[in-house]
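Dear all,

This email documents one entry for the complex benchmark we are building for the journal club exercise. For each entry we list the sequence lines for every component of the assembly. Then comes the predicted three-dimensional structure of the complex as a token string, followed by one or two observations. Please use this as the template for your own entries, and keep the labels exactly as they appear.
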Amino acid sequence: MTIIDNTATVPSPRDGADHTGPLLEVRDLHVEFHTRDGVAKAVNGVNYSVNAGETLAVLGESGSGKSVTAQAIMGILDMPPGKIPQGEILFRGQDMLKMAEEERRKIRGRKIAMIFQDALSSLNPVLSVGYQLGEMFRVHQGLSKKDATVKAVELMDKVKIPAAKARVSDYPHQFSGGMRQRIMIAMALALEPDLIIADEPTTALDVTVQAQVMDLLAELQQEYNMGLILITHDLGVVADVADKIAVMYAGRIVEQAPVHELYKRPAHPYTKGLLESIPRLDQKGQELYAIKGLPPNLLRVPTGCAFNPRCPKADDICRTEIPALVPVTEQDGADLPGRTSACHFWKETIHG
Amino acid sequence: MLDVTKTATAVEDAVALPADPAPAAKQEKARSLWGDAWVDLRRNPYFLVASVLIFFLLLVAAFPGLFTSASPTKGDLVRHFLGKPELGSIGSEGWLGYDGQGRSVYARLIYGTRASIIVGVTVTAIVTLVGGVMGMLAGYFGGWIDALLSRLTDIFFGIPFLLGAMVVLQSFVERTVWVVVFALAFLGWTQMARVMRGAVITVKHADYVHAAKALGAGTGRILFRHILPNAMAPVIVVATIALGGYISAEATLSYLGLGLAAPTVSWGVDISTGVDQIRVAQHILLWPSIMLSITVLAFIMLGEAVRNALDPKLR
Amino acid sequence: MADLSKNDEAVAAAVEAPVGRGEPILQVRNLKKHFPLTQGIVFKKQVGAVKAVDGVSFDLYQGETLGIVGESGCGKSTVAKLLMNLESATAGEVFYKGQDITKLSGRALKAVRRNIQMVFQDPYTSLNPRMTVGDIIGEPFDIHPEVAPKGDRRRKVQELLDVVGLNPEYINRYPHQFSGGQRQRIGIARGLALNPEIIICDEPVSALDVSVQAQVINLMGKLQDEFNLSYLFIAHDLSIGRHISDRVGVMYLGKMAEIGTDEQIYEHPTHPYTQALLSAVPVPDPEARAHRERIILTGDVPSPANPPSGCSFRTRCWKAQEKCSQETPLLAIPQRFDGLDTPAAHLSACHFAEEKQVVPVH
């Protein structure tokens, strides 16, 4: 057992050495799905960027488009029914959507890796863990089988799997949930990528194991100076590890802010509602604030601001005009770096 | 601490909600899963083609007299092996030619439909009923019923279907349609029991079954209200496809001389005769074979279409 | 109900008797559920057992909410199934108004079932997809026709829909036409239909979106007041556990580690497992991450088929000593706090129980 004092572990963003501008930038991305009942607009113009060494948390509920955006970045969207009608995904300044499949494949796994929620179904049950880890080196680096296994053991040590040498030939089902998620992380790390996308990496795990895995991820991110996109619905996890946060709702980013700012002064009614509606371990409330209504149906996204039917501040303008994601400033007009909000009434929300 | 004054109660909001976020949802009608599947089916061209064909075949089987006034058994040796369809006279007694005994091939085709359809439909009905009930009991109760059924299914599984049917048929002197039905059903029911058992086992662990038990529901209610409706889909699919299989099995047995035999009119019987006479008159083999293939295909297409409509994962 | 046997009648009568507020309505004593592990296909031989629930005792008082928290595999959901008689207990008793319900069957069981209902975790699998909402909520009346006369049922169902905040016009729709939160409301309406006294809630909001969770939690709170319900609320989310519970029990590996009022458990935990669990919960406050002490446990929960000897938590505990592997600690008020007027004086199954504050107090 270790007792960790968290005072010194807040990572600071650092830029990549040989590259100016963000590591990954998503610009005006749209994704739609053609279904039996119509066109579901899953992502409707998402913009975000992440730098080397930085953790961007993408926060949203089911259907907010957070995972679809990540799949579009990885190039693992099912197309059809999925379709990307417009947008750019720039990795080190190059648009991946315009690349040839061959070129994209070189980036996938080597430069950008992904960690999924369900480690058991992401690992092949009939191959040993060592084989699957070693495969990365055999395929991408042409190592021999023996060297690849040595590397696999090293990786398992790195993600703190006890008795790595003895367990390298075990199969995925022989590991516990937490250990499997570590193996997933090891696979993602194998080729030392520049960016890791983690889609709800700890949601399926127990609280005590969750903390172990999140800590490991943060530690390794610092060591390799990787960019990390953490996709989650859990406001608690975000508060623990993120540098900046993008809040998504109905396929749009409704607010972006550095982590401390967001929790202190949300500038969008949805963020505000979410923060107020979660029960707190350290507080006992009588009744929770509840955001009224239901998450939107992507086949029939409300006109204007998608949040307007559930919003306490909604006015006529909210029902007709889609609010743009605009910079948020202090009351006196002073800049608040990194803060944006897509609300007609952001001023009232943050300062009111 | 939470600000209680601004704490809208969830309930009030939710009551106000239906009119609010999605006005379109108001017009949304009640749509059952069966209803959804039906909507899907209607849009599927395979289903349309198959159901038109099957409807037509059923009509022919029920009312052969509507399609021809000729008799399938009255021969006139003058017309012996007269062939060549005459397009000008579609539907007339001789438009598909005559067989070796001078009987109308067209009339025999029309009257032979009945045997095939009766065999297909009754075998499927018996097999689904018997297999379904056995599978349901085995799947739901487990224990010795399940052990017994599973072993029985394994044994039947080891017997090649046609070989088994041949052995059963051999022991009957007179082979009517009903004997063939018995032989096929006797060997076929375990397949359906297996399908039903699997479906029931999947469904019986669903939370809504637990919920019904927690309410105090009896076994009958649980089986017929909760388990059966949710376990039916795979059985319907398998049954539809199997129906085509039973029709072709009947033809195969008749061809081998173990199924129906003259004077019963059946496609299998005619195919059998047709093969003997293939060098002299090809049309006697041709037409019943075409009818048989179309019929089997129609049921398989229907089964596939139903499978696609019922299995939400394939959507 | 003239054809009830004598014993059934006695049970039915006992079950109808009212229980005063604050009196125990459900008493669980040394409840055990062992799932046998077998080998062989024809001749099954028992080679061991998964001790899913291994001697759990607690009381549920009338009108209160007792939270049961713990990680996956700790046996909390099995407890729910045992209380509902969906699984039969290997040993132990569950007294409902003084009647042991673990051995009931037939009509007596049915009478008890009217009074103990359940809300399930997954609203996507707990509603029969082939039944309309009206049929689902009306089914309790079909099973217990004495509760509502036939002509009255449709109105009753619509009333229930209204009570849980759904439009009564939705009565003819099917579950797949609703979102997760709405489905859970339907499940709650079904649970309420028979006007039960106890509702066992098995993680009722964990499958819902964050913004909808609060709605459902508030609804459940409101219904508790309105219908004078007692809740057994099973949760893996400790924050929700705290919010809704009057008292909380913490389970680990089939056993109760600690039980007390929400204040005792969350602010004055004495069992090291509770302390680790609480400290690991991410708090939605980035300011807190700087000065929060986190106890990170090493390793995973051991298999319930082969639990450690003595205290089952000792393999992950930083206080573990020789004694812990030999003596199973009993769930009792720790000696050092016994008789003292301190919130730390509550039931805790640890040889070395001591108070440690891990949740910041405001």
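Observations: Chain C touches chain A through 57 residues (CB under 8 Å). The mean pLDDT of chain C is 86.
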